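Quick start: what a row looks like.
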Amino acid sequence: MGYSPVWVGAVMAGLQLAGFTAAPIAGHLSDTMGRRRIIVSSMTTSFVVLLFMAIAGNSPWFVMFVAVLGFFLFAVRAVLQAWLLDATPPDMGGSSIGLLFAIQALGSASGPFIGGLIADRWGIMMVFYFLAATIVIANMFIFVTPVPSARFAPSTDSEMQ
């Protein structure tokens, strides 16, 4: 898109700083408002921001939207982990988080490759539309994910006997 390496680095730093800021806020809100509500609202906002990025194209607005995207996109990560642990028996927490991280790594590894294929064929802005569509699909999965009926509580000593 014609940005200098220093500018790209600054924009990526803005993305990470926004995520750094958002994570504790989203974590607190998920504790008080519920995990699903925070995930759905963050992913919906990420979808809208990605559409704005595609529309903004090579403009100063694009750079600003990168930071906004980081705020909402990275806010979801800790909340997803907390929701997973809420829905998982205590003795399966490590396994479930390991599986989540493996799936995220698979997406992180394949995403740039798929994005490159799309950019080569249809242009870089189409990648943002593709990402927006994947977020919509992911959001639909959230609506069909069952809500844990009760948090798994650690067993008391009397229950172990």
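That is the whole record. The radius of gyration is 18 Å. The chain has a mean pLDDT of 84.
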